[in-house]
Amino acid sequence: MALIPPWPLLAPFLLSLRCFSSSAASTEGSVFQFDIEGSAAVGVQEATVTRVLQAGAAGSWVPFAEGCEEGFYRTSSGQCSPCSCNGNANRCLDGSGICVGCQRNTTGPHCEQCPDGFIGDLVQGVPTFCQPCPCPLPALANFAVSCYRKGGSVRCVCPESYAGPNCERCAPGYYGNPLLAGSTCKKCDCSGNSDPNLIFEDCDEVTGQCRNCLHHSSGFRCERCAPGFFGDARVAKNCTECNCGGRMCDSQTGECLADAPEVSTGTDCPTISCDKCIWDLTDDIRLAVLAIDESKSTLLSISTGVAAQKRLNDLNLTATHLQAAISEKKNHAVLWTIQVDDAADEMNDLLREAATLDEQGNEASSKGLLVQKETMETNHRATQLVQQLSNMRDNIQEIGSKMEYYAIQQELSPEEIAQKLDVAEEMLKEIKGRQPFTHQRQVADKEESMAEQLLQQVEEFHERYNDTRSLVSDVLEQLSEQDVRLSDLGEALDQALDYVLQAEDINKGNTASLQRREKQQEKIKKQMDEVNSTLQSATAILEGPQKVSSELSEVIKNVSGFYAEIDGAKKELQEKLSNLSLFDADLVEKAMQHALLLRRLADELARKLYGVDTNGLVQKAINASNVHENIAGYVAEAQKAALLALNTTHRVQDAAGGIDTQIIYHRGKSEELLHRAMELQRAAGDSQDVTVADTGRHLNGTLARTRALRSQLLRAVASMQAAEAVEARERLEQAQLQTAEAVSATRTVTQATAPMGENVKLWSQNLQDFQHNSAAYDSAVHSAGDAVQKLTEVFPQLLDKLRRVEQKAPANNVSSSIQRIRELIAQTRSVASKVQVSMMFGGQSAVEVNPKINVEELKSFTSMSLYIKFEKDNPQLAASPDRFILYLGSKNAKSYIGLAIKNDNLVYIYNLGGQDVEIPLDAKPVSTWPSYFSIIKIERIGRHGKMFLTVPSLSSTAEEKFIKKGEVLGPGSLLNLEPENAVFYVGGVPPDFQLPPSLDLPGFIGCLELATLNDQVISLYNFRHVYNMDTTRSPPCARNKLAFTQSRAVSYFFDGSGYAVARNIERRGRFSQVTRFDIEVRTPTDNGLILLMLNGSMFFSLEMHDGFLHLRYDFGFSSGPVLLEDSMKKAQINDARFHEISIIYHNSKKMILVVDRRHIKSVDNERTAMPFTDIYIGGVPAEVLHSSSISSHLAGTVGFKGCMKGFQFQKKDFNLLEEPGTLGISYGCPEDSLMSRKAYFNGESFIASSQKVSLLGEFEGGFNFRTLQPNGLLFYYSEGSDVLSISMDRGAVVLNASGTKIQSPDRNYNDGKTHFIMTSVTPERYELSVDDKKQSKKNPAKDRAGKSPEGGKKFYFGGSPLRTQQANFTGCISNAYFTRLDREVEVEDFQQYPEKVQAALYGCPVESPPVALLHKKGKNSSKAKGNRNKKVGRDKDKISQPSGGLKKLHQEVNMQRDPQCHLPVNPKATKDAFQFGGTANSRQEFDHIPKDFGERAQFSISLKTHSSHGMIFYVSDQKETNFMALFVAHGRLIFMFNAGHQKIRIKSQEKYNDGLWHNVIFMRGRNIGRLIIDGLRVLEEPFGGNASPWQVTKPLYIGGVAPGKAVKNIQINSVYSFSGCLSNLQLNGRSVTSASQTFSVTPCFEGPAEAGTYFSSEGGYVVLDESFSLGLKFEVVFELRPRSSSGILLHGHSVNGEYLNMHMRDGQVTVKLNNGIREFSTSVTLKQSLCDGRWHRIAVIRDANVVQLDVDSEVNHVVGPLNPKAVDHKEPVFIGGVPESLLTASLTTRNSFIGCIRNFMIDEKPVSFSKAALVSGAVSINTCPAA
């Protein structure tokens, strides 16, 4: 770039400077700043010198004197602060500090970023410089959009036309060589004559020459017809074969060419007769010439190499820079010459003036002294002038250089430079006209001195910092040396320990050797004593009966164990029978209906495997059939479980019968010993007659005792069999019946599923050979249909038999196996719903689809998408072009939506109970649609309808989109469908179904494929029935790839029920020193399982909990599981955006969590390698969780719902749909499934957005809601004093529009069902419609202008942060819509709302009210109630106790509710179960202990817990010498007691802190202890029976012990209270109830809970410790949520009769005080109920005789009499209640408080109830039921 000559530009500027310097007013302090970018930063010393020079030239103008130096900027306070540009810029803007002119290819406000196409030099942090991305070559050939570092290498983000890790090659459909400088990738151009089945045109990736020209075309770009053809190959594409009998023809016209063309006259050329070969040769030569020209141009464009090209570019750049520098030097020289000449001229003028003055001085000598003085002054002024000129010259030189640099850098034209100079002159004139800045200069000088001092301090600090930094390396080196020394010391200690162990082993070996030698010596001595051989033989004879006795004891012990097992099974059977008896006839009838529904659903299994497509989901659908192979296995498990009871009974019989066998065996042994004795007798001779006689006598005595023992044993067995004969026989017969039925069911299933293995192999073989082979395709489909048809016939029978077995079997294993079979059926249905394959309809066929969605969700909002393709060449369409497509509606055709083709238009038709609404898509006639799949989406929001059509393009990625809208004119806005009356037909309808007239058309001809219904994936292959569907004649249409979105090709969709599994992941990569998992997720949900690996009790789980990541793992660590969670909330996952999650396990001891390439958290653990082979993604099968013990360690077991992609292990990709075992996932990432159309509000939450148009002018909107609460604010909007709100008031819906209220007539909308609200505001009327029941009133403000509020106004759903009369809503709001100025009418996506407070945007945990489960609601409630009472009375004799319990529950639901309170008095709780924990000594105490407790103590109890430690049961004597305890340690149950001085400990192997109920029996007998868990696992430990008498004293502790107890015998962690629920306590078969004392024990609640302390209706209170007291001056603040309108809140009482009491009575809060003089009180009553289910704040402030009470915003106070003798006592403080003895007669409320209290504070100090001095009664610390 040529430099611009500076003088023409500088001339006016210098003129203005000359004028400026000669002005009288000094402009030294002016602020004049140019935006000039320098090439280097000015150093600190240089800046200091500049300031000194400026200060020395007082009274002269210095440019830029008032501006900050380079590298500094002026702040808003006027100070100069350093620029924060990371060393990449010299200047920044005043005020903001934003850097100007970032260098080294950086950008950003502080030069801290790299622009697109560049990458920084640092992996993390701010880059010091940025360089072009090496994609593939930096600077010369950089085609990347951006790039980043990952895993030590640079990754390029390539544009569409480039591919490869470094964009080094062209993408498919493009050609070129990116590695050559100057070469780019260009799009292939084959004139549209390439293969249409390919996504991109096929050409050579380097030259661009087209391959495989179709349509009889040829040429480099298929631009002309092939030889032998003529026509237009590029536009018309009509190349036609020449009809010239084998001769050539003109390629354009088709005119045949003559064999011998005539030679023009007038030439000497002879006539040549050419045959066809010559013309072919000529054409080939012409083509070769074209190819050579193209090759020549290609070769000429090729460079000699990248390195050479780069070298030439560098030389050119260097030459350019040198030329610019030389030119700049020349310009400077010219400038300096001119400046010197000007100075010389001025000096000459001065000399001439001096000569004149000298002559005048000689002439006037009288004035000599005066002239001399003036001359001196003139000289002085000349000197100053010279100095000013010098300064001016320097300034001009500096300005000129900077202006030239600025012009070059900014590429300014001469005109722009002249314009900027004119502006500068104007600025100089303005400055010249201003007053001198003397004061500002003084201030600036002062600031300058202060800045210099600050700079000096900064430099000193920087020097200290550098000194300190220089020592870091030395310190690190010393630390490293110390670390090495410590490692050496550790190794030396390990070696010493090994030596010690070796020495111990040697000592042990020596000791063992010595013992062996001593034994050998003793043996030799015994062998020498031959005299006693006969006596030893006699002793051996006596050992036989002793063995008989010991084995008999063992048999008795086994029989006791068998009895315990039978007892446990009996107890389970009794519990199941009692549970079954709770159901009345209505529930049984519902169960039968449900069974019939299951049978119908089982029939649907015949359609599950009917779908195949080219995406690989065919194989998935066929693999789903393998699920039924597992059915036989699970039924076999049922058979084993049924046989278990039979085997147990047989074992009892075998044990009894085996006693005879043992006796016979030992009798034989005795006889054998007798024979041996007789042989010894014969060998000994006559000398031993006396010894043999003695032996004979001993033997006869032994035989006699054996016979006696046998008879005694037979009597015992007979008595045992007599006692249990009838019961054992009944159990045996029952078990045999169950076994027979299970075996029969197993045979049936086995016969039905036996051919499946062969069919699957046949299908797989056919599909592997499937290469557009319709025969193999049809064979596979028919094979699947036949197998499924067989299974359909047998499956209802199987379900009936399984149901009968389930009803009869007492074992839980049978029920769980049957449940597992049903889960497998549900999974198979889910797989069928995701088969993305079309169906061909021929005009007579139809499919009835299972909608897979609750029709309640379709009432207010319906959305459906599908793919459609017409068979245009079918002759039936010519006869009747109008066709039916689909129908979703009621069987009576009153409410429905449908699609049809009418008059060559696609028509969307819907009817909401009135007239049809038809929306024709006339912008795109059907006849103009392409011959491939198009996408249709229909939508209905209330009465508004909309239809979308998307037509993809084959030649590009562009799409045609069409939209058409409609609206119902009548009053209806809901699609009212009933589940049993709703049908969904596609393609046609069965002959017996009558369509409405608007849809009564012939069936569809073509291919259809369903995609989604609302946000659920749906498929035609999840059908109920098919009609006239023959796949052999009408195979499915192949889907064109352009119909798939890009995300569908790379993403996987999880709907929460499926999962992916990668088996043997080490086949793709090995666990190594650095193990890494990567995955990208996108979801709007709060919770979900992402990754899970299992190996026995070891596990690794990555979950999403409340929107943040939660990683827990255990590789067999001694310290238990390790938790790594995003506790700082750095990365929220559930924002419906893709997030890249990386988990790195470094060096087998450090786990690192990274989200979006940002470190979240890391944790260290014991050095252990990952012991896993398989990994589950997005979910896990239920049986895997049930079979493992890790479910208690998971934050939840919710499957993931959303999208995933890019799963990698060790940077190796996995295709999840191709992994065997993957179930229930599909391709794609549908946007509708990621929207949050539903929100749940908990009474404290709300969501908010803004609206551009006023809702009070003209507005229409609606939404669904669902709640159990009678009150709550649903919607809120305000403009000044005008409010638009929708709320619930005592079960009714109320619209409040600017003071005008409209209330629904019904008050039962808090019934837990979904209801739809639609509101309308017009200048004339206000309307409210609830479930299409409309109410309206006139608008009194008709003249209101509907103008938009400035900036938009907020509106709220679910509540409001503002103070309103209504409480926030508790329940669900979904499918909300209203008219908005900024977009069309559509359902609100709550995920996009900017303000969300405590609202859950997924799921709706609102259940139906409990009463609905107890009786069937009819039209006449009194009649229904009478019928029910009659039914109960009739069944009273049959089911006395369960029916009474059911009646009691019914009464509790209806009666136990305070009429003033929103919440019931008693939360939902498990019957007869109690919850312990919250305090260290939570417990129940029982005083009754039976007299025979020391002889036989057998307890049984049911428990559930998540805690790892805690005391369950404890009893002991006074000194705790004798004791018995059951407790939890590390999740395992431990039964412990003493036997004399010996402690017996029985420990379970499995962990039982899984949150499930378990039955435990523990007993202490005379000489044995036994622990039985769930009736199946028997653990026992014998002990000596000669122990001293075992006696204990009361009390008996349950759930915990008193302070100081059990520490002597039990480890401290298990002494503390058990945290969980206990029930069904029995002692020696009798129930133990009525505890003598209770401490912090409440009923076992069900449902959600939150932080707080709960005071139950059974009564209780908390006594604070001595550190808290209520004296003469205090402040008490707390929050409460009552369940009763009356109760004592706080009480303090002194010994002299003074007291302070705070209580509620009928919703009024009162504080009453007696200070020794008299009583005085104050009260507050809220406008709204204090018992409305919300938290309320109460504060009490006392200052001597003044008491103030605050309840929410209401305040009251009282001034009592002053007691001059008042003393500040420390009395105990009671919370929630008080003993009756401390209450005075003047108190009107004596009941305990019922409800929750939290955030309790005294004098601004938090009070922890868990550390209270006493917690008495039914009080739950730290846990408060929320509903």
Structure description:
- This protein has 1827 residues and is α+β, with helices and mostly antiparallel strands.
- Helix content is 32%, strand content 27%.
- The chain contains 22 helices and 88 strands.
- The strands form 18 sheets. Strands 33, 34, 35, 36, 37, 38, 39, 40, 41, 42, 43, 44 and 45 form a 13-stranded antiparallel beta sheet that branches.
- Strand 81 and strand 82 form a beta hairpin.
- Helix 4 (306-363) packs antiparallel against helix 5 (368-410).
- The protein is globular, with a radius of gyration of 48 Å.
- It starts with 6 loop residues before the first helix and ends with a strand.
Task: List the main descriptive attributes of the protein structure presented here.
globular; alpha+beta; 1827 residues; single chain; 13-stranded antiparallel sheet
